Structure formats: C-alpha cells, structure tokens
C-alpha cells in the first residue's frame, strides 16, 4: 500500500471581518491518540500502526454572500441534529457538535485494521460582521448538511439615489 501525505483543503474565501479559525486538540485528544497508537503497534498483525491518524476533525464549511444574506454551509456526515448546537452570542456565531463512533452489541471480538473516519467533538466560532441581523439567524439540517442563514440588517442594504449631473 502506498502512503499519500494528507493535506487539509484550505478555505477558498474568508468570511468578511474574520481571520482564519484555528482548532487545537485537547489533552484528552492527544492522550487518546497516543494510547491508540501504542495499542495498534503492539496488537495489530498488519502493521498499520505507523500510518498517520488525524488529531481531531473540523467540519468543512462554505460561506456564501448574496444580496439578502450570508449562507454558511457545514458538512457534518454521520451526525444527528440532536448532536449539533448553534448559538449566537455577543456578535459570535458558534457551532458545536460531537460525532460518536458507531458500536453495536456483539462486535467486541472484531478487530479493525484501518481507521480513516474521524470522531470526537468540534467547535467553530465566527465573528459576525455588523451588517448581520443576529436576532434573525436561522438554521436547518438535512442529510448531514447544516445550513445557517445569516440575514443582513435593513441598514446594510444599499440605498441608491439619483445623482444630478450639472453642466459646466
């Protein structure tokens, strides 16, 4: 099996007024990863213990602006709506969630040899620009895709006026 270096896709656009979001793993994440690494190195006959495993996962997010709103779309495959929390407080939009590993009874004797899916909790926060009406933020979740509608306030809409042209 050939090893291919994994590189995370960089966002195509930045949300207006925001810097890049960083996510640092917790100490529990690091400890769990080290424990799994050691256990895999000692117990797995196929020797995949040296394949890199991601520290944590961050859902892919797109942000698109239209005349009326910003639309934030997050990919959350394998998650249920009850496992996701969206909140707006003090001009910050925060998305939290936890993706848990599916385990069924009677499968304790099965061994896994390759784990590429990621599990765990995540949190993403975005500073809302002043033109977003935080009181009317709405969210919908369907087929693993979370859509958050961030409507622009009435003050943000461009107001046109006729400019008189004077002759010289």
3D structure, described in words:
The chain is mainly beta and 168 residues long. A hairpin with a 2-residue loop joins strand 3 and strand 4. The chain is elongated and about 90 Å long. It has 1 helix and 7 strands. The chain has a 4-stranded antiparallel sheet with strand order 1-2-7-6, with no helix packed on it. A 3-stranded antiparallel sheet has the order 3-4-5, with no helix packed on it.
Quickly describe the structure.
With 168 residues, this protein is mostly beta strands.
Strand content: 25-35%
What is the tally of helical segments?
Answer: 1
Strand order of the largest sheet: 1-2-7-6
Structural class: mainly beta
Helices and strands in order, then pairings?
Blueprint: H1 27-43, E1 61-65, E2 69-75, E3 84-89, E4 92-99, E5 120-127, E6 138-142, E7 145-151
Antiparallel strand pairs: 1-2, 2-7, 3-4, 4-5, 6-7
List keywords for this structure.
single chain, 168 residues, mainly beta, three-stranded antiparallel β-sheet
